[in-house]
Amino acid sequence: MTSIESVTLDVADRTAADRFYSAAFGLGSQVRLRAAQAPSTGFRGFTLALTVSQPANVHHLIDAALAAGATPIKPVTKSLWGYGGVVQAPDGAIWKVATSAKKDTGPATREIDDFILLLGVEDMAASKKFYVAQGLAVAKSFGSKYVEFAAGTGPVKLALYKRRALAKDAGVSPDGTGAHRLTIAGATTPFTDPDGFAWEATSMASMA
């Protein structure tokens, strides 16, 4: 069964990026870094989301990311569904931190409940069918708007969003060209999905 063991981000400065991610989110081996100058402009077609248990944790992680050098995109705000904020890492990746809780139940921590990779897709039905064929089980599905797969044995969940809707949720323009600058680890054999996102076998990713 395909599951996500880690995501690899192409970054211009691996040392600086490692310093940022350690200080901001502390995700360890779930986020790997590879020095590369892959050409890319604008929205790269994906976002990375961290869900936490309470608003204080959202503020804590967003503040840590900003202190480490992230650029604010959406400040932490309260909405009908909870709290959330969006930042862009120095390497260009977009991160959202959110919670469905309305009130704090304890002191702020860096504890993360779920790590979700959201891919922006052009044809939801085709992408959903493709990933089901790769062995992923659908956990949630809202027609042509959103699909979330069960994490399986991996620590990272995969979700699909229409590209324009994903960009809107992140607070950026949907326009973008060039490489995704993202590689997903966890496939039995390497493959590329209908939107050009590359998967590699876990054994290959461990060498990145």
From TrEMBL:
SUPFAM superfamilies: Glyoxalase/Bleomycin resistance protein/Dihydroxybiphenyl dioxygenase (SSF54593). InterPro entries: Glyas_Bleomycin-R_OHBP_Dase (IPR029068). This is Glyoxalase. It comes from Streptomyces violascens.
